[in-house]
Amino acid sequence: MGKAYLLCLILVSFSVCLFLGCDNSKKESDEMVNGHEAKQEVPSGNVRNGGVFKIGWSSTSSKFGDPLDLRGPGADFMSMACQTLIAYTDKPGVFEPLLAESWELAPDKTSYTFHLRKGVKFHDGSPFNAEVVKWNHERVLVSNRPTMQRIKSIEIIDDYTIKYHISEWDNTVLNDFRGGASIIISRVAFEKNGIEWVLTNPIGTGPFILYDYKRSSYHKYKRNKDYWQKGLPYLDGVEIHSITDPMTQLAAFKKGEIHALREIDVVMAEEIEKLGSYNIEFISGGHMILWFNNTSRESYMSDLRVREALEYAVNKEEIALSLGKGYVNPIYEILFGAHAAGNPGTTPRKYDPDKARKLLDEAGCPAKMKMTLTTVTKFYTDFVVALQDDLAKVGIELTINRLEPATWRESVFNPVVPNHLLYDRQRGGTASLLQIIKEDFYSSSIYFPGVKRPEVWDKLITRALMAENPGKMIEYLDEVERKGYEEAMFVPLWDAPDIVVTDSSVKFDKSKRGSVWYAGGNPLLRMEYVWFEP
Q1: Per the count of CB atoms within 10 A, which of 182, 365, 402, 516 is most buried?
Q2: Is 528 helix (H, G, I), strand (E, B) or coil?
Q3: In this structure, is the dihedral angle defined by the CA atoms of residues 144, 71, 174 and 496, taken in order, positive or negative?
Q4: Residue 323, Cβ density class (10 Å: 0-12 exposed, 13-18 middle, ≥19 buried)
């Protein structure tokens, strides 16, 4: 299997596509719709309807029915049954029409108008229309979720036309309609059964209907016979089984008890690859980074030379090669996806322990520095041990502090204790670069508290978000990345691959998009396109 750099970074047309997706005219939307509808034909004569696709997944979720209260991979599980107005495609910033057939931005950029599909029904038989869309999205507007913050009001034009009035347009407005809190559920089911019932009963318009669920064990879905896309889905059903033990995962996969494994580690991926006859797919599931408190004078990190020394001290290439089994790459960027989007022109800080020690000496650091590295238990791997060893070579003695997930979530929203490091996973990717910058990197963001933003950082982000010219937008993004890396805002390390392995009998329609698991580097299940080869 070729192990070229990750799928989400092989996107050379970022600037044009991103801008078109944010300013999707009626004509452009109609072209996408026509192309989308034209591909509802069976992809080949070998497609066989029927069968139940069984997936082994190490993650689980107890809340996957209310868009405003999703937990863990809850959005993935919910997407089997529920849909949004639009969805990511493989091209960054370009969206696929789903429950909306088309949309247009007003000439003065004060509103988006969506034209909805007709004849669509929820799993409970209630109709899909503008009224239920407005009800769903007004729930978002009154919640404390960051989604749809630019939407000031929603207006129904007719049963299948809805207008969203915008307080201030930027390049990320459409992102809010493609997932998470903007997922559409049945209002009738919600009002009839109540919120507690809804949490584990996703009643949507999607290709599969949840019919059985056991917490921390399985989710079972059956084919929606009344699905609005004719001829789909091909499968009779999909089952997602929670299997946390790697050996149990592998045994079930080899026996054919399950057809796919999601979120496996690099060791298992390498072992399965040696067996042959299986398909392995991976993208970057995030960038692993070190972040810290560089706003406190009590912290070594307040000195740029110390922050630079940390990166020079880590042999990223060797660690990625030896421990990553070909699925991990060293990272030299602050913004996840910045180098795929543009060309910041930064010089990477490659491994140089002598330079690292010299910088520490110049900063007046002691020959032996004691620091604490805090991480969540799921990230405590051989990579952390290798990191600890490399830093020890330049005189930095790390004590590893492992936190359980619940405690970890509390800690990351408070400034890091001086002279502590956090080993964390940065979310993002090329397709969602602007959205993540907007949510995570403003000085006012709840993310990365205690991390000092470079001078004029917020202004540059705002300019990128508001830029109407795609070339200028990329220029601003390049400058944001350049300033962040020059200031060693945090230490980028390596990517964390999201690896999926499937049995060779499992096929999907590649005319729809490159992967059934991902779109543009973002997790997004589209099981309606899967079938078993005869």
Answers
A1: 516
A2: helix
A3: positive
A4: middle
pLDDT tops 60 at residue 27: no
Mean pLDDT lowest for which of 2-11, 163-172, 210-219, 236-245?
A: 2-11
pTM of the entire predicted model: 0.78
Q: CA-CA distance, 421 to 374, in Å (whole number)?
A: 6
- Residue at 473: amino acid letter: M
Q: How confident is the model at residue 337 (pLDDT cuts 50, 70, 90)?
A: confident
Q: What is the pLDDT of residue 48?
A: 79
| CA dist., res. 430 & res. 9, Å (int) | 6
User: Would the pLDDT of 4 be above 70?
Assistant: no
**How many CB atoms are closer than 10 A to CB 404?**
10
The answer to whether 333 and 286 have CB atoms below 8 angstroms apart is no
How many CB atoms are closer than 10 A to CB 38? 9
Give buried/exposed letters for 442-467 (b at 16+ CB in 10 A, else e): beebebbebbbbbeebbebbebbbeb
How many whole angstroms separate alpha carbon 239 and alpha carbon 143? 32
The token duo for 441 is 């990197």
**Rounded (10°) CA dihedral 174, 179, 181, 184:** 100
Written as six digits, the tokens of 340 are 């795929």
| Whether 70 contacts 140, CB under 8 Å | no
Amino acid at 526: R
Q: What is the largest CA-CA distance in the chain?
A: 72
Q: Pseudo-torsion of CA 175, 517, 426, 184, nearest 10°? A: 40
Q: For the chain, give me the number of helices (H) and strands (E)?
A: 17, 20
CA-nearest of 500, 506, 462 to 480 is 462
**Distance of alpha carbon 446 from alpha carbon 442, whole angstroms:** 9
Is the separation of the CB atoms in 46 and 506 below 8 Å? no
Residue 460: which residues within 8 A CB-CB, separation 6 or more? 476, 479, 480, 483
